[in-house]
Amino acid sequence: MAVQRFGDAGGMAVVDVPAPEPAAGQVVITAEAIGVGGVDAVIRRGTLGGYGFTSGWIPGSEVAGTVTSVGAGVGASWLGRRVWAFTGAGGGYTERPLARIDDVVALPDGLSAVDAVTIGSAGPVAHFALAHARFTAGESVLVRGASGSIGIAAVELAARGGASVVAVTTSSPERGERLRDVGATRVLDRSGAGEPGSFDVVVDIVGGAGLPDFIDRLAPNGRMVIVGVVGGMPPADFGMRLMAAFQQSRSVATFSLDTVPVKARDAVRAEHFAAVSRGELHAVVHDVLPLDQAAEAHRRMDAGDVLGRFVLEP
After folding, report:
1. 6 close to 44: Cβ distance less than 8 angstroms
2. What single string gives the DSSP state of each residue in 267-291?
3. Could you tell me how many helices (H) and strands (E) the chain has, helices first?
4. Which of 123, 175, 296, 304 lies closest to 231, judged by CA?
5. What is the DSSP letter of 77?
6. pLDDT in the model for residue 89
7. CA 313 to CA 294: how far, in whole Å?
8. What percent of the chain is modeled with pLDDT above 90?
9. Which segment of 17-21, 102-106, 256-260 scores lowest on mean pLDDT?
10. Are 108 and 83 in contact (CB under 8 A)?
């Protein structure tokens, strides 16, 4: 069985390993599609090195395909079903990934595996991040780093939720125009320059050195929610921007889907799968590549060459 895993010095290599056997409460899935997430690139770069990701680690956290083997305690009715699955912090870049049955959701008829891994994690992250920011209809929203799958979902969900303004940061006017197709009303460059104004909610997927400048873009009582660090960790003293504008009552929070109960996550995920099937939400796919080209997907992500999600097919 072929898998992609990290080699030395942050490289990636295809290796053959024995096919897995499911433990109690697990299933084996014959993968049809594997999502390439921003977190995969963050782990490979070493941004989260303190979490123990080392050489030999198999990246990837979401897959879609058919259940072909079940462990003890898992109903045989799962065999042969098309599913989406979360594989954890890694383990997805493989022909036959393992997943806990609690992290498996059946796919509706008519939803492709490629679309499933494009919206399966991104949609719930965006949904609950907006909820974490206490976003309500009529408020203005800025999505910083809107070109990836989480950003696109946040744009579309904010627009559907009645935002008065949905602004985005992106690297080119062409990408900005494509983001307008899913609900963006204002397009800023990556620095946020060129467009004055403040925002009630900022959903930040980038982090990095520029994060404090976007704290300055919060309106009075504005809320920033950080859902990713694809641009690296923010400066250690970024909170000083909050203190410098103390009378604005701004706030900054982090958000991880890990804090949302499984039933609530699954309900929103199933909602999104159905909405994509009906054409009400959009799973934007940048490119579909063979599993052995995972390194190429990462190279293009590092270069900023992406609108939507890269998907791997075994």
Report:
1. yes
2. HHHHHHHHHHHTTSS---EEEEEEG
3. 9, 15
4. 304
5. G
6. 82
7. 10
8. 78
9. 17-21
10. no
